[in-house]
Design brief:
This protein is of the alpha+beta class. It contains 17 helices and 14 strands. The chain binds uracil (URA).
């Protein structure tokens, strides 16, 4: 088989066989096929697309390029969750504790990530001493003993995706439905989950800006998961404004703690309850979503979720005291309120601009090598539909550098669109996609 022929076939709109897909994934992973040929193939796939069979084969070829986590020694169905990414998204921190406290084991691989804030692991490192460095045996022991462990995504999990994603990132071939779906699902499947709940974001701060393309991505991923024996449900959710109020690592951890305490923002709480309910049903704890919802309500009101967070942080070497007293977290040096210049109603809070401001403040990484500042970020004080009075505070900004603070204030101001007429709040949960159905809520 020659790579040239595989590229030519896709360029002409042909359907790649499983053998051809395995050939290029194995050859690329081993370094036998060069970047320039795989770039050409990615561009051909970008324009010609892949059908469901090709997408499933690409997913499994990437899964088989490395190791698959072996979680069979842990009792119960292991359910993983993935979000396609959004500004202010700290749901994993809340969900992991809630779901584990309910009795569904959480054995999760997480990333650090590039972008406006750090990933789940960076956020957890807000607890002094917290580490994801542990042997596979310790990881499994923690899940057995505490019902929860979060590890770092190792290079042995879906290495082909790691190489391919980096290549797509610099060749303008990221935003293709089959390539995104196979990339995400290969990592989830290699992570060893029996079932998967996906949070597919839609709107200005998401990969998929349009509702229809978000539903199409959700359908593609659900079909991949179900076709390879992993029950998968996708919830399509709003990312036209940041989730919750806090953006930035420690600030988000504080908000997650408040949510586990029952005092979180209503959108974040609702999203965690929705995703968590689906996780409990897939995990076999309850058969109905409303029963699962009640279980999670009790987890919050009894303080079991908060207790589980403390137990988990301690089990991974962290200092859990800030869970009870978040003022123990270090704070940024410069804190500034941003006042509204006009009265009216909030029509839009552009998540992409808020993300950009957060990155400039230093909360996220521009490149893999950049370091992040856990203390900086912002807390918004308004959501879409809220009334604002002139000079009322729109956001409080936390910085450790005067110049960066100055640079971000106009960006945050631009993110807020305030209009004189009343505005309806956004609908957070746009719909649910599972194996057999698709439900849209608007
Ligand atoms: N996230 C991934 O992991 N892969 C993609 O292709 C896009 C988003």
């Amino acid at each position: 088989m020659r790579m040239y022929d595989v590229i030519m076939k896709k360029r002409e709109g042909g359907e790649l066989s499983r053998e051809e897909i395995n050939f290029f994934i194995q050859g690329y992973t081993k370094g036998d096929i060069p970047d320039y040929q795989v770039s050409a193939l990615m561009m051909a796939i970008y324009f010609r697309g892949m059908n469901k069979r090709e997408t499933a084969d690409l997913t499994m070829a990437m899964v088989n390029s490395g190791q698959v986590m072996e979680l069979a020694s842990i009792d119960g169905k292991k359910v993983d969750k993935h979000s396609t990414g959004g500004v202010g998204d700290k749901t994993s921190l809340v969900l992991a504790a809630m779901v584990a406290a309910a009795g569904v084991p959480v054995a999760k691989m997480s990333g650090r990530g590039l972008g406006h804030t750090g990933g789940t692991i960076d956020k957890l490192e807000s607890f002094p001493g917290f580490t994801v460095t542990m042997t596979p045996e310790k990881f499994l022991d923690n899940v057995r003993e505490h019902g929860i462990a979060i590890g770092g995504q190792t290079s042995d999990l879906a290495p082909a995706d790691k190489k391919l994603y980096a290549l797509r990132d610099v060749t303008a071939t990221v935003d293709n439905l089959s390539l995104i779906a196979s990339s995400i699902m290969s990592k989830k499947i290699a992570g060893g989950a029996d079932a998967i709940v996906l949070d597919v974001k839609t709107g200005s701060g998401a990969f998929m800006k349009e509702l229809d393309s978000s539903f199409a991505l959700a359908r593609e991923m659900v079909d991949i998961g179900c076709n390879v024996g992993r029950e998968t449900v996708a919830v399509v959710t709003d990312m036209d404004q940041p989730l919750g109020f806090a953006i930035g690592n420690i600030l988000e951890v504080r908000e997650a703690i408040e949510t586990l305490r029952g005092n979180g923002p209503s959108d974040l709480t609702r999203l965690c309850m929705t995703l968590g309910s689906h996780m409990l049903v897939l995990g076999g704890l309850t058969s109905k979503i409303d029963e699962a919802w009640s279980v999670l309500e009790e987890i919050i009101s009894s303080g079991k979720g908060l207790a589980k967070l403390k137990e988990f942080v301690k089990a991974q070497g962290g200092e859990p005291a800030p869970v009870d007293d978040p003022s123990l977290f270090p704070s940024a040096r410069l804190i500034k309120d941003l006042p509204a210049v006009t009265s009216g109603y909030v029509k839009r809070i552009r998540a992409d601009l808020i993300g950009k401001a957060s990155l400039i403040l230093g909360a996220g990484r521009e490149t893999k090598e950049s370091s992040i500042d856990l203390m900086v970020g912002m807390v918004l004080h308004k959501k879409i539909g809220d009334h604002v009075t002139k000079n009322e505070c729109l956001a409080t900004v936390y910085a450790n550098d005067e110049k960066r603070m100055k640079e971000t204030l106009p960006i945050i101001r631009e993110a807020f669109c305030i209009v004189p007429e009343k505005v309806d709040p956004d609908i957070l949960i746009k719909g649910i996609v599972d194996k057999n159905s698709e439900e849209r809520f608007q």
